[in-house]
């Protein structure tokens, strides 16, 4: 029997900030949410961590399920844990980031995503949750790498 606690625990999620260089523009991959909260809004691909996987496995799985992108060269960026960041309840998200090449950037919406699309980083739509902060933080890391 698994050990249970009488104390509430936060939900654990992962999100991926994936960039690609398209000619002269740097673009970021977003999904259009299929379900509430924020149904129809754009967000980072991601989701809940399953009980039998690591956060590193979860982000690769969620990215593939929601966008079709096969990509595993992601680095851990930051853990977002603001108390009210998700209207469904207390959620902590481990954010990963990376860059893929044009030849590995065909995407389509799947699973919990109506659509998946690349957006220029300087022309992003309004994003769900606190995902704009994650994109900006990842972009600043990319700038230090250049």
What can you tell me about this protein's structure?
- By secondary structure, the chain is of the alpha+beta class.
- It has a single domain, classed as Nucleoside Triphosphate Pyrophosphohydrolase (Alpha-Beta Complex), CATH 3.90.79.10.
- Helix content is 19%, strand content 34%.
- The chain is built from two helices and seven strands.
- It has helices at 55-67, 131-145; strands at residues 11-22, 25-33, 42-43, 46-48, 75-80, 91-100, 113-120.
- Strands 1, 2, 3, 4, 5, 6 and 7 form a seven-stranded mixed β-sheet that branches.
- β2 (25-33) and β3 (42-43) form a beta hairpin.
- It is globular.
- Along the chain, the helix and strand elements come as EEEEHEEEH
Shape verdict: globular
Top CATH class: Alpha Beta
| CATH 4th-level superfamily | Nucleoside Triphosphate Pyrophosphohydrolase
What structural class is derived from the secondary structure elements?
alpha+beta
Give a topology summary.
Elements (H helix, E strand, L loop, with lengths): L10 E12 L2 E9 L8 E2 L2 E3 L6 H13 L7 E6 L10 E10 L12 E8 L10 H15 L1
Parallel strand pairs: 1-6
Antiparallel strand pairs: 1-2, 1-4, 2-3, 2-7, 5-6
Give me a quick take on this structure.
With 146 residues, the protein is an alpha+beta fold. Helices cover 19% and strands 34% of the residues. It has a single domain, classed as Nucleoside Triphosphate Pyrophosphohydrolase (Alpha-Beta Complex), CATH 3.90.79.
